[in-house]
Amino acid sequence: MMDMARAHVFISGRVQGVNFRASARNYAREVGVSGWVRNLEDGRVEAVFEGERSAVQKMVSWCYSGPSHARVEAVDVRWEKPTGEERGFSIIW
Fold it and tell me: Which residues form the Acylphosphatase-like domain?
């Protein structure tokens, strides 16, 4: 049985308007993580990553740098119980 994990992440800094969501979606699909990503009105990006623990950890680590034009200042990670409800990875508009 796979070791599953779920991370609820809030990323602060210059993370909107820098292709963060599309890059997160592409990397999530590459590493095989389900979930979603969206911009928040306060300028942060919020995301949920669920899947095999090692893949979720790769996504969380990626959030500390993000795409090349992002300037990440802080990452708030909340580890939650996996729900198994996520299917694929999407951008919430």
Answer: 6-93
